[in-house]
Structure formats: structure tokens, C-alpha cells
Write a structure and sequence with these properties.
Largest sheet: 3 strands, parallel
Strand content: 15-25%
Number of domains: 1
CATH superfamily: HUPs
Number of strands: 5
Distance between the termini: 50 Å
Strand order of the largest sheet: 1-2-3
CATH topology: Rossmann fold
Number of helices: 6
CATH class: Alpha Beta
CATH architecture: 3-Layer(aba) Sandwich
Order of helices and strands: EHEHEHEHEHH
Shape: globular
Length: 160
């Protein structure tokens, strides 16, 4: 039987402990994950795509079951290129579900083979978003415990 691989896409700007929780829990269900970092030139990014890839790799301690790659454009096309038909998405709140539900259905419309699996974020991380972490760090707040140590150091360096 071929390995079961899922795609976990996002901007990861910056990666948070919530993201790592989804990755760790996803690895209990799949043989491997491709963490797909979105290149979106329209977004105001704190860290470059390359920096986000390095931050994720550092936070994952080189787990061989996880590949960190970048993509731009349609997620469905990237999934097809990678030979993956399962997308893993984390949900924090009901408000996330509405957007994610629409996106999952559009992806399925574009490719009937694509399935989206929604995973609830762990109770310790449901209130964390990359945007909130960026804003708090920018204003000098303490985000330790919300992000991996290497990301905390990168945030401190960026906002010193």
C-alpha cells in the first residue's frame, strides 16, 4: 500500500504552536505531510517565504515524515503536482469553518479527487493566529509559549 500523504497548506507567517500541533496530530493519521508554504505577493508578509520555510524546518527538528515546500497559485494544482489528494486544515473557531468549507468545496469542484480533512486546533491553541502573534510581538508583548523557540528568537530579532 502506498504511503498516505496529506498536504497542510498555509502562510505560516510566522509558524505557531497551533500549526505544530496540527502537524503532530496529522502525523498520527498520515504517514507523512507536505507542509505547503504559500507564496502570496499580495500579502503583507513579516517573514519572507524562504524565512518561513527555514523557521518551519527548524521547529520540526528535521522530522523525516514532514517535507516543507512552497507553492503559489491554486492549491489543487500543487496537490496534483505532488500526487496528493488529501488536504489537512486546522480550525480554531466557527468563523474559520465558513471560509474553509467554501475553499474545500471550490477545491473539490476543481478536482473531484481532492478531499479536505478538518482538524480542530488543540484547546491550548484555539485562540492563536499568526496575525495576533505578529501584532503582539510588534508591540513588544510576550509571545513565548505561542510559538516555537526558534520563531520566538526570529520575532525578537525582527522587532528589536
Amino acid at each position: 500500500m502506498p504511503p498516505r500523504i496529506a498536504l497542510y497548506p498555509g502562510s505560516f507567517d510566522p509558524p505557531t504552536n497551533g500549526h505544530l500541533s496540527i502537524i503532530q496530530r496529522g502525523l498520527k493519521m498520515f504517514d507523512g505531510l507536505i507542509v505547503a508554504v504559500l507564496k502570496n505577493p499580495a500579502k503583507d508578509e513579516l517573514f519572507s517565504v524562504e524565512e518561513r520555510v527555514q523557521l518551519l524546518r527548524g521547529a520540526l527538528n528535521l522530522d523525516k515524515r514532514v517535507q516543507v515546500k512552497t507553492f503559489s497559485g491554486l492549491l489543487v494544482k500543487f496537490a496534483q503536482q505532488e500526487g496528493v489528494n488529501t488536504v489537512l486544515r486546522g480550525l480554531r473557531a466557527v468563523s474559520d469553518f465558513e471560509y474553509e468549507f467554501q475553499m474545500a468545496n471550490m477545491n473539490r469542484k476543481l478536482d473531484k479527487e481532492i478531499e479536505t480533512l478538518f482538524m480542530m486546533t488543540g484547546e491550548d491553541y484555539f485562540y492563536i493566529s499568526s496575525r495576533f502573534v505578529r501584532d503582539v510581538a510588534r508591540l513588544g508583548g510576550d509571545v513565548s509559549g505561542l510559538v516555537p523557540q526558534n520563531v520566538l528568537e526570529a520575532l525578537k530579532k525582527r522587532f528589536k
